[in-house]
Amino acid sequence: MPYDSHSADLTRQKEIEKIVLLKGEQGKIHFYEPNELVFNTGKLYKLIIKNESDSKHYFTSTLFAKSIFTRKVQVSLNNKKVAEIKGIINNVEVWPNHQLEWWFVPIKTGVFKDLYCNVKDTKTNLSHANMGMTGTIIIN
Ligand SMILES: [Cu+2]
């Protein structure tokens, strides 16, 4: 129980759900859908990062990670919670046909164009970012 029952805990408000899909095909293309995500400061978000492709992918944005307060990253398997990771998260990696939830509250505004995936494509030897897997995160 909190000592001060009147304190406002921004991480306990009703969450706003957003989904970003990790898509593509080895040797052809890799991308985020959508490749632009918009959030507002002070709101609690549940960002579902879902891999619907045949490769593993990173969701990496250092500027974004520095502009949010992470409540938890939750991992589920067959719709059953199997893990919660708490603390400062800098990036996450998701394997094919799996997903995770990143629960966070944006605390700093900005336009962050450093979202990318640095996994190497097994057929072209290019990074996924070089094949199109980049994006922008906007915090208003
Ligand atoms: Cu990737």
Would you write up a description of this structure?
The chain has 140 residues and is mainly beta. The protein has one domain (10-139): Sandwich (Immunoglobulin-like). The strands form three sheets. It has a six-stranded mixed sheet with strand order 2-1-4-9-6-7, with no helix packed on it. Strands 3-11-10 form a three-stranded mixed sheet. The chain has a two-stranded antiparallel sheet with strand order 5-8. It starts with 15 loop residues before the first strand and ends with a strand. It is built from one helix and eleven strands; from the N terminus they run E-E-E-E-E-H-E-E-E-E-E-E. The protein binds copper (II) ion (CU). Copper (II) ion binds at residues 30, 55, 57, 117, 119, 128, 133.
Beta-strand residue fraction:
over 45%
Number of domains: 1
Tally of helical segments:
1
Ranges where pLDDT stays below 50 over 5 or more residues in a row are none
Summarize model confidence as the mean pLDDT. 94
Helix and strand succession?
EEEEEHEEEEEE
- Assembly type of the shown chains? single chain
Globular, elongated, flat, extended or rod-shaped: what is the shape? Answer: globular
CATH architecture verdict: Sandwich
CATH T-level fold name? Immunoglobulin-like
Bound molecule types:
copper (II) ion
**End-to-end distance:** 32 Å
Number of strands: 11
| Helix-and-strand structural type | mainly beta
CATH class reads Mainly Beta
Strand order of the largest sheet: 2-1-4-9-6-7
